């Protein structure tokens, strides 16, 4: 019990015990704590705040390399497709049942070559009727001519007898009237012959319409009908009536169509040399040339269509193939000095420092100021003939406070602005 009592006494608060000192020693401790906190804040700023840098957006610089075949440098790349300017789905002019189809996919046909024939029973019957009508009209002409010949002879005899007063005047007048009537009948019969002849020619056209011919020379790319099917120039039978026999493509009319973004269409000019590469044959460079820039834009895609002529004809080039094209500068004259390497960057990356054109290249988290020598304006881009070589990432819309060597934080990946797709 004495031990427990001693322990309880130790837990009692001694109110007579003197308070701890509150002099200079305690102030030094508080000051030391404050100093430690300030030093920690400064160190945190150096580690986290100072190293964060200015937040910027960047874009890629594109190197403009020399094209092949003596052409100049590439100023724009785009993608498109091979298309045919001359393509036709051939159909019959009349509705009828297919009797024979004489084409197959991939077959070469010449102009006016027979592609198919329709059942000609109705057309032949109409032609036979027209021929019979023509023969009847011709027979009627012969009949009237014979009657007219007799009437003219009779009127001539009665004229002499009337002068001799051997017959009455009324008999002569009747003979003359008969002659004139037969002359009118002959004229009508001759006109009927002409009408019957025209009807026969129309019937011949109807028979010819049962034969489907190629409108031009080309290659068959689709066979749409089979013997026994009903074909019609109009889809009168809904989905059960064919409207075509086959499709022909003139391979000599193949060209390239590409959609160029509105922001880059200023780089393209008519007659501009182009280098095309088919997706199916990536190592084959095809020489081409800009035909025309279609003067309208697609508001949905913000693009302008460009037509490109293919200078090299080859059976490997077929419609609807994917193709990538490079628009080139005009070829340099023979003996001219080679063009210096150049690059292309967005106009938004340009800045002025001390009256000079500069751009800020992002390297290892810092902005390096590069003095530039500028060339042509290429839509929303600008050619750089000195100061950049291509492949760098430059700051877009650099703030006036951005200086050489400043730390930056990139909020996007560098992009190549030369591709329209």
UniProtKB/TrEMBL annotation:
| Residues covered by the CusB-like beta-barrel domain | 256-328
Provide the transmembrane region boundaries.
28-48
Q: Does the keyword Protease apply?
A: no
Protein keywords? Coiled coil, Membrane, Transmembrane, Transmembrane helix
The residues the entry assigns to the signal sequence are none
Question: Which intervals of the chain form a coiled coil?
Answer: 134-192
Judging by the UniProt lineage, the source's domain of life is Bacteria
Protein family (similarity comment): Belongs to the membrane fusion protein (MFP) (TC 8.A.1) family.
What Pfam families is this protein classified in? Beta-barrel_RND_2, BSH_RND, YknX_C
Listed name of the protein: Efflux RND transporter periplasmic adaptor subunit
The YknX-like C-terminal permuted SH3-like domain extends over 344-410
Listed InterPro entries? Beta-barrel_RND_2, MdtA-like_BSH, RND_pump_MFP, YknX-like_C
Query: Would the keyword Nucleus turn up in this protein's UniProt record?
Result: no
From the UniProt entry, list the residue stretches annotated as the region Disordered: 400-421
Every copy of the Multidrug resistance protein MdtA-like barrel-sandwich hybrid domain together lies at: 86-232
């Amino acid at each position: 019990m004495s031990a427990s009592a001693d322990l309880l006494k130790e837990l009692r608060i001694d109110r007579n015990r003197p308070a701890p000192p509150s002099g200079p020693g305690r102030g030094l401790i508080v000051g030391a704590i404050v100093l430690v906190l300030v030093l920690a804040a400064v160190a945190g700023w150096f580690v986290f705040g100072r190293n964060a840098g200015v937040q910027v957006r960047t874009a890629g610089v594109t190197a403009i390399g020399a094209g092949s075949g003596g052409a100049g440098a590439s100023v724009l790349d785009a993608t498109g497709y091979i298309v045919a300017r001359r393509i036709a789905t051939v159909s019959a002019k009349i509705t009828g049942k297919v009797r024979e189809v004489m084409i197959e996919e991939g077959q070469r046909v010449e102009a006016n070559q027979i592609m198919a024939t329709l059942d000609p029973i109705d057309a032949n019957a109409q032609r036979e009727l027209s021929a019979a009508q023509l023969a009847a009209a011709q027979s009627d002409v012969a009949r009237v001519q014979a009657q007219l010949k007799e009437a003219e002879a009779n009127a001539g005899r009665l004229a002499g007898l009337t002068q001799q007063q051997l017959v009455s005047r009324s008999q002569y007048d009747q003979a003359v009237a008969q002659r004139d009537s037969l002359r009118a009948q002959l004229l009508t019969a001759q006109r009927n012959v002409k009408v019957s002849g025209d009807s026969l020619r129309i019937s011949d056209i109807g028979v010819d319409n049962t034969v489907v011919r190629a409108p031009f020379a080309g290659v068959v790319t689709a066979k749409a009908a089979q013997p026994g099917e009903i074909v019609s120039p109009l889809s009168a039978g809904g989905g059960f009536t064919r409207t075509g026999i086959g499709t022909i493509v003139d391979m000599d009319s193949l060209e390239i169509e590409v959609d160029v973004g509105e922001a880059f269409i200023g780089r393209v000019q008519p007659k501009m040399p182009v280098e095309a590469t088919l997706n199916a044959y990536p190592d084959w460079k095809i020489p081409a040339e800009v035909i025309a820039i279609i003067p309208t834009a697609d508001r949905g895609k913000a693009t302008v269509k460009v037509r490109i002529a293919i200078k090299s004809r080859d059976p490997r080039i077929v419609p609807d193939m994917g193709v990538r094209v490079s628009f080139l500068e005009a070829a340099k004259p023979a003996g001219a000095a080679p063009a210096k390497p150049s690059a292309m960057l967005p106009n938004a990356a340009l800045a002025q420092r001390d009256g000079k054109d500069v751009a800020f290249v992002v390297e290892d988290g810092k902005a390096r100021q590069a003095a530039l020598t500028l060339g042509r304006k290429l839509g929303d881009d600008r050619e750089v003939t000195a100061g950049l070589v291509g492949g760098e990432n430059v700051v877009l819309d650099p703030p006036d406070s951005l200086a050489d060597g400043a730390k930056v934080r990139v909020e996007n990946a560098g992009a190549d602005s030369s591709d329209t797709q």
